[in-house]
Each structure stands twice: as structure tokens, then as C-alpha cells.
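Reopening this one. Same input as before:
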Amino acid sequence: MDIKIEHGPGNAAAKIQLHPRETVIAEGGAMIAMSSDLHVETTTHNRGGGGILKGLKRLLAGESFFINHFTSGDHGGNIIFAADLPGDMMEYRLDGDTLIVQAGSFVCSSSEVTMDMSWQGFGKAFLSGERAFWLKIGGHGQVVLSSFGAIYPVEVNGEYIVDTGHIVAFNETLNFSVTKAGGSWMTALLGGEGLVCKFQGQGTVWCQSHNESTFGRALGPLLKPRS
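Same output, byte for byte:
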């Protein structure tokens, strides 16, 4: 399949051209528009099976219980996907490597790509304010990820620190630990940075320019209460 990211970084959409009889797997609700002859199948799993267990794992990782399989006919077809939040998208081509992806960033992938749940531990999740489960995406094929705001890569060779709410995905070759942002807890709290992820090793971390939790806290007081 051929992927073109349009209208980024503020309102990105992924326009995908499918070859004849080709399938793309997408997060539920991601489709904007598609060719009329595409066949759609909704299941709880991707290739390799797993059924309901696969769906439950995705729920724990912050994704939808169901995923959609869009298959083109004899003449191919096209389809357009978008994410829930305004921001950017990126295409990544897997060649036997693995990405760890934060909740909500998976948009779609070719059918050869495999998805599973990655356990980061309750300790890291509690300290970082994030989920205990992330998506583990691997195999061979293409994947499209989304971000809240602009998305950009940071190359790590040794150590690098990223705010917990600004992580989109990272190579599985990297290890990380949750730590305070400043030299002391007082500095971390008064400076407004709090806790961060310290990545170690060699690989790439993809970051997003906006933090969903921070945006929610800023927006919340401005919303009118329900009558």
C-alpha cells in the first residue's frame, strides 16, 4: 500500500492507496472516507488470531476493543484515516523490528504487522501518570501513528530525558526509567516538570508537542457545567 500524510502537522490525515486485494487494519472509528467497493470486516484481532483476548489487551493499552479490516477489490482502492485529536501523523516501515506505542497513537497498519500488549509495570505507570500497558507493534510492514500536535523524532545514543506526556512511540531497543525532572524533588515540583522518562540505549523516541493531560487540565475550568 502507498501512504500519503496530508494536512500535517495541525490536522493530519493519512490517505492510503491499496493495491488489488490488499488489506489495511485500522483502529475503530479512524476512517473518514473510502472507495465504495472496499470490503469491511470488524473483528477483535489481527492476523495470528487471539479473538477476545486480543481485544481485551488493546483495551488495556488504551485502544478500541474492535479493529477494522479494509480490503480492496480487483482494482484496488483508497481510504482516508484520521485520529481523534488534532495533530500530526507519521508512517513507519517495520523490518523485523519492534515499536512500543503509547495509548491512542495507533491509527492503521498493513495486515502483516502484529500487535500485542507491552507491560511496563504498575510502578512506572503510577509514577509517570500513564497506563501500565502500551502497544507492542512488530513484524514486517507499514504502520501509521498519530500525535497530539506536531510529531518529531529524537535520536538517543546513551541517555535522553522526555516528559512522560509527550511520548508517542519508541524503539524496543531502548530501556527507560521514571525519575524526577530536576536535581531535587523541590526543583521538579516547583518547576512544573514533575516526573520524566529517562531513556537509555540506542534508538529513537518519537515525541509530540502537546500533552493531552495538561491540555485537559487547562481546558476543564473553561467548560460550562452540564445542566
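So the earlier flakiness isn't reproducible anymore. For the record, The radius of gyration is 18 Å.
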